[in-house]
């Protein structure tokens, strides 16, 4: 049985790609089920009515990812 959930996209940060059907891979700040917002990376359908699987990162996890990416340069 599918569980109901809610989400609110609080800030749209970046669109990383878009396919020919209008689905976009986006980095956003999202609150899931009324919880504190997190960085969220996933595919979204047009108008954000559908979503694919993705990952969420806390502020600390996002900072660690940023640091790791900078060290690769």
From TrEMBL:
Gene3D superfamilies: 2.30.31.70
Key words of the record: Aminoacyl-tRNA synthetase, Ligase
Superkingdom to which the source organism belongs: Bacteria
Domain Transcriptional coactivator p15 (PC4) C-terminal: 20-68
Signal peptide location: none
Record flagged with keyword Protein biosynthesis: no
Molecular function GO terms recorded: aminoacyl-tRNA ligase activity; DNA binding
Gene Ontology BP term (one): regulation of DNA-templated transcription
Pfam families per the UniProt record, alphabetical: PC4 (PF02229)
Protein's UniProt name: Seryl-tRNA synthetase
Originating organism: Enterococcus canintestini
Species classification: Bacteria, Bacillati, Bacillota, Bacilli, Lactobacillales
């Amino acid at each position: 049985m599918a569980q109901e959930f809610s989400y609110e996209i609080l800030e749209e940060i970046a669109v990383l790609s878009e396919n020919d059907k209008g689905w976009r891979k986006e980095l956003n700040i999202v609150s899931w089920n009324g919880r504190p917002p997190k960085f969220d990376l996933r595919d979204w359908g047009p108008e954000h009515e559908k979503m694919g699987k993705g990952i969420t990162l806390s502020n600390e996890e996002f900072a660690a990812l940023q640091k790791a990416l900078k060290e690769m340069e």
